[in-house]
Amino acid sequence: MSEYIKKFICPNACKANFYTTAHIMQEWEVDAEGDFVKVAIDLLQVSHEPDFDNIWVCVNCGEQGILIEGTNIDEESIYKKLAEGKSCT
Ligand SMILES: [Zn+2]
User: Fold this and answer.
1) What separation in Å is there between the alpha carbon of 46 and the centre of ligand 1?
2) Least enclosed by CB within 10 Å: which of 1, 16, 53, 75?
3) How many angstroms separate the alpha carbon of residue 57 from the centre of ligand 1?
């Protein structure tokens, strides 16, 4: 039994983390008309976790990540193909 995998990889094979967005809820101090004064609580709760529809950018090189998914994913061969593709251009 092989596990279904869904993940981002860096096309430069950095194997590093990624930057992407999450939607969070903040508590603000506002004036009587509701205009922003200052942030009272930075992170009240996470309203939307990062998802695979976002753009994910490699922390190490800044390249946009590539989403791979499926079973029996051979990451090393994917990196190899990416490297070969680059040498042709
Ligand atoms: Zn990278």
Assistant:
1) 27
2) 1
3) 8
Predicted model pTM:
0.77
CA-wise closest residue to 15 among 70, 72, 78, 71: 78
Quick one: which H or E segment has residue 86? helix 75-88
CB of 66 closer than 8 Å to CB of 9 = yes
Residue 23 — pLDDT band, cuts 50, 70, 90? very high
Confidence of residue 74 (pLDDT cuts 50, 70, 90): confident
Cα-to-centroid distance, 36 and ligand 1 (Å) = 38
Residue 85's pLDDT is 80
The long-range contacts involving 48-55, CB below 8 angstroms and separated by at least 24 positions, are: 48/22, 48/23, 49/22, 50/20, 50/21, 50/22, 52/6, 52/8, 54/20, 54/21, 55/20
